Task: structure prediction
Amino acid sequence: EVQLVQSGAEVKKPGESLKISCKGSGYDFSIYWIAWVRQMPGKGLEWMGIIYPGDSDTRYRPSFQGQVTISTDKSISTAYLHWSSLKASDTAMYYCARGTLTVTGTFDYWGQGTLVTVSS
Amino acid sequence: DIQMTQSPSSLSASVGDRVTITCQASQDINNYLNWYQQKPGKAPKLLISDASNLETGVPSRFSGSGSGTDFTFTISSLQTEDIATYYCQHYYNLPYTFGQGTKLEIK
Result:
């Protein structure tokens, strides 16, 4: 069974760093793209970026470039989303999602979400 | 970036009603369009890919159509378990973009 299991909820202060994770199982993690999607409170879905675990090829939405870092460790089938300095505006639910084998931009499996709260 | 405009933003309908949501792309995206369902407190779920391809296990009351810039998502007979927010999403090029969502409620 394909699963994406994300790390737990986080409460952080502005300026702190954070790395959340997304662990895949039940499939060959290295050959499927993984995307990160943001959902701010009460708002819609926003695609942040995508990574290919096989070679760490990464693409970002321009508005997130330089604001977050997407990475992966294929040896443990895990993708990461990292902030070096959080802002209050980073408060949101973050989902990882798997692209299909044939269509990178079609997300057939999703993690359960990680709620990030940034507050002083 | 390609903009995706969904309408309506919210919709109230009765059980058994036919429900239609539209999604318009700001440029031709061929049929590179998906539809997702998100129930409260849950992750999105892929319902339809390639504009009209129903995913395995998704009830046949859901359907999608369209190509180019104009797309339609239909629930032929609304059920109580269909209460959710529905999103279209293009994958024509990067960055992928979602529509703003349509919140479906029972009347």
The longest strand of chain A covers residues 18-25. Chain A touches chain B through 23 residues (CB under 8 Å). Residues 58 and 77 of chain A are 16 Å apart (CA to CA).
